[in-house]
Amino acid sequence: xxxxxxxxxxxxxxxxxxxxxxxxxxxxxxxxxxxxxxxxxxxxxxxxxxxxxxxxxxxxxxxxxxxxxxxxxxxxxxxxxxxxxxxxxxxxxxxxxxxxxxxxxxxxxxxxxxxxxxxxxxxxxxxxxxxxxxxxxxxxxxxxxxxxxxxxxxxxxxxxxxxxxxxxxxxxxxxxxxxxxxxxxxxxxxxxxxxxxxxxxxxxx
Length: 205
Prior knowledge:
Shape: globular
Low-confidence stretches: 1-5, 10-15, 79-83
Number of domains: 2
Radius of gyration: 18 Å
Helix content: under 10%
Distance between the termini: 25 Å
Number of strands: 18
Mean pLDDT: 77
């Protein structure tokens, strides 16, 4: 696949058509109708030489050009996932991260499931009391960082910034700290969190 950036805008849907805009330089964009039997397209992410996304009908789909999409398999967090329940590609396969109710506790829980092929998925792992912030996922190799808020068990204290880290593509998780809760990004070599200053984390090969 040529190196390109693809964007989808549901506001441009007309008569069940969904459009994609693609660019190779970030300036000049070309609109193309998305082909395939799709109800919607959310959570577009890079997966090697293809793109993956969620469709409310399939729901995991893939494309090599951003316009022609086909089914990959089912995903465990609901048949109609919200935009925050996205599938991410890692060195160990795939993981889906989404929110879930947390009975008896304030706020939500975060649920994660992993897969080696995007078709067969592990049972859900729940981080109770942890609420993922929008855009709070970054992946390099097998290392995954989740950014969000930890809720008080009794619901008395205000939620505090919290982060969790996995070094096995989302199978096991442990708390991490030392930087503010904010959007995080990666260039494939380091992870960067930017707020009142910048926090940079080098990661193992």
